[in-house]
From TrEMBL:
Signal peptide: none annotated. Residues 154-310 form the Tc1-like transposase DDE domain. One of its GO terms (biological process) is DNA transposition. One of its GO terms (molecular function) is DNA binding. InterPro entries: Homeodomain-like_sf, RNaseH_sf, Tc1-like_DDE_dom, Transpos_IS630-like, Transposase_Tc1-like. This is Tc1-like transporase. Residues 73-142 form the Transposase Tc1-like domain.
């Protein structure tokens, strides 16, 4: 159940719903988690209802709040109209509606305690067009019955760019706890045109390739086919095929992967492909390894000062990643696909 939530205020509709769920035999812990309140709050609502038979607020001492139900609805609309608005501007907009103005601190308390909005960093996720959402949903439904053994028979590959001194700032958005992955609360990410070191790697259950650096002048389909597909990826594919029999290769839809040269190599060498929907790094377990690699790089006491030092540091940190982490990420694929199916192709927590 939620921890350290305290005794947040609930409205009459929420209290009625809580009593209904209790009457249906739902556990107080599950109800508290659903309504983002403490278990004590659930018990108090039940005790109050048993005593009074209604869901009304108890008489309160002290000065009455300036925020009535109508004001709360208006504040809710202001926040939803611009999730990135600063608190001062929210207060100004609200005061144009109120007959008795309120201060910024009152608005902040109301957002937190009553409406359950908090300023949080927006989660960065790839921008999804409607066609991406539809294709992701189709992918989830098509792969929802696959077993762990099926995912153990896939080579998961990817490229990543790594820069020196990259700015990782992230703006705040107003959202409720359960709105973390709502479209308007995300920070869409787009392909970057900045020059950087590009690396490639592949993983499979209990295995990984070496970390390969891609020359900045050879980031095209022919070079990828020659230096990766016909090189370390093909060698890795042969090794695993000999060990496990049936193997598929997952590559995303980047142009270097879908060019005629690459397609011809796969066709000629009878490489089975594990299809991957566009704009879906959350469906590729190796993506989290890039995060771990960059985090380890940022924690090094001696920071790389040039590209050659960066390459050396990356090779060291790549080899330090424990194979159990790789296995855990691959074993998460059924949960990832289930989350994607439940999101109907939208963004997931992965």
């Amino acid at each position: 159940m939620p921890k350290n939530l305290g005794q947040r205020n609930t409205n009459s509709a929420e209290r009625a719903a809580i009593i209904r769920l209790l009457s249906e035999g739902r556990s107080p812990s599950k109800i508290a988690e659903f309504f983002n309140c403490s278990r004590t709050t659930v018990y108090n609502i039940q005790a109050s209802y048993n005593k009074t038979g209604n869901f009304d607020d108890a008489p309160r001492s002290g000065r009455p709040s300036k925020m009535d139900e109508r004001s709360l609805r208006h504040l809710d609309r202001i926040v939803k109209s611009n999730r990135r608005e600063i608190l001062g501007n929210i207060t100004t907009s609200l005061n144009t509606f109120l007959t008795s103005p309120v201060c910024t601190r009152t608005v902040q308390r109301t957002l937190h305690n009553t409406l359950q909005y908090y300023a949080r960093h927006a989660v960065k996720k790839p921008y999804l067009k409607e066609v991406h959402i539809q294709n992701r949903f189709t992918y989830a439904k098509a792969n929802s019955r696959l077993s762990l053994e099926d995912f153990h028979s896939v080579i998961w590959t990817d490229e990543s760019s790594i820069e020196l001194g990259k700015d990782s700032s992230n703006p705040l958005v107003w959202r409720r706890p359960d709105e973390k992955y709502w479209k308007e609360c995300l920070l869409p990410t787009f392909k970057s045109g900045r020059q950087s070191i590009m690396v490639w790697a592949g993983i499979a259950y209990n295995r990984r390739t070496a970390l390969i650096f891609l020359d900045k002048n050879e980031r095209n389909g022919e070079a990828y086919t020659r230096n990766i597909l016909a090189g370390p990826l093909w060698d890795f594919y042969l090794e695993l095929s000999e060990e496990r029999g049936w193997i598929k290769v997952m590559e995303d839809g980047a142009p270097i992967h879908t060019c005629g040269t690459a397609k011809n190599f796969r066709s000629t060498h009878l490489i089975d492909v594990f299809e991957h929907p566009a704009q879906s790094p959350d469906m590729n377990p190796i993506e989290h390894l890039w995060y771990l690699l960059k985090r380890a790089l940022s924690k090094r006491l001696q920071k790389p000062k040039n590209l050659e030092e960066l390459k050396g540091a990356l090779l060291e940190e790549w080899e330090k990643i424990d194979i159990s982490i790789i296995n855990s990420l691959i074993n998460s694929m059924p949960n990832r696909i289930q989350a994607l199916k439940e999101a109907k192709g939208g963004s997931t927590k992965y």
